[in-house]
Amino acid sequence: MEEEVELCFPQLLNSSCKKPKRPQLQLVATFMVLSSITLLTTTLNLLVIVSISHFKQLHTPTNLLLLSLAVSDFFVGIFTSFQMLLIDGCWYLGDFMCVVYQYLSYIVTSASIGTMVMISVDRYVAICDPLRYTAKVTYRRVQLSVSVCWIFSTVLQTLLLWRNLERPGRFVSCSGECVVGIDYVSGLLDVLLSFIGPVAVIVLLYLRVFVVAASQARAMRSHVASVTLQGSVTVTVRKSEMKAARTLGVVVVVFLICLCPYFCVTLTGQDALLNPSSVAFVTCLFYFNSCLNPIIYAFLYPWFRKCLRLIVTLQILQPDSSEANVL
């Protein structure tokens, strides 16, 4: 006797998708992981957003980039919750909501990656050309750059998904499926602008940063015997730059570890050949990057820990709390 096939929509016998057979333990584990990622990502990034937006001392060009990153990663966390609807392999919210979900998630993901590129440029100028940093990186220029990043992400994804937006469900083969489709040329353009290009820029800039940091370290060692008061200040500055360089190294490694598997699988079409557990792991790893970003970029800064104490103790509600000294 043949085993009964479970459908996403039993009332639609001829058009419903079949539920993929997955172990119950895997479904529970995936749900728990995605729930944890959603909670951590939204909470941590919301704390960063509140801190930078509220305290006036934090209204700097670099922190504006961190704010943009936190906003995009916050929404990535929100959209991760929709991924939980697909745990059993079925989408129950209809074709229109499917396209809206995919469209918005692509925009915020693209904006998050674009903001990481801008942060790498900011750190590159700060470490490699510190004397002209304040003249090159102004608050107004960063505001413009952030706006362009979000507008570019929106326009790019609108063009790539236009056929899906025009007719939701165009590429759906059965009820309960949530997919979007783009042609080969558009897909190649998306790969270049959303993955290969940003990764290349980030890696090249960080390599240059490490070269500069290494040369500074050699200079520090060669002049350590004749340190004057001015020299000690220079040594302190260079140590700070070295610390920033090491932090950037962590950023690069985490970024590549989280994003590369996902893009490699989706771009080569291997997602159809991998088992569901592998696909779920790659997807969770991709979303987990947005949870790690606030930890890497914000938790390593003392000012964030001060802001966190003020927020948790509700001192942020006091009059003139925005003027508090958090640096």
UniProtKB/TrEMBL annotation:
Bilayer-spanning residue ranges: 28-52, 64-87, 99-121, 142-162, 191-211, 248-268, 280-300
Keyword annotations from UniProtKB, A to Z: Cell membrane, G-protein coupled receptor, Membrane, Receptor, Transducer, Transmembrane, Transmembrane helix
Cellular compartments annotated: Cell membrane
InterPro entries registered for this protein in UniProt: GPCR_Rhodpsn, GPCR_Rhodpsn_7TM, TAAR
GO molecular function: trace-amine receptor activity
SUPFAM superfamilies in the record: Family A G protein-coupled receptor-like (SSF81321)
Coarse class of the protein's main subcellular location: membrane
Membrane topology: Multi-pass membrane protein
Keyword Cell membrane in annotation: yes
Keyword Cell membrane (UniProt): yes
Pfam families linked: 7tm_1
GO cellular component labels: plasma membrane
Domain G-protein coupled receptors family 1 profile: 44-297
Family, as annotated: Belongs to the G-protein coupled receptor 1 family.
UniProt protein name: G-protein coupled receptors family 1 profile domain-containing protein
Biological source species: Amphiprion percula
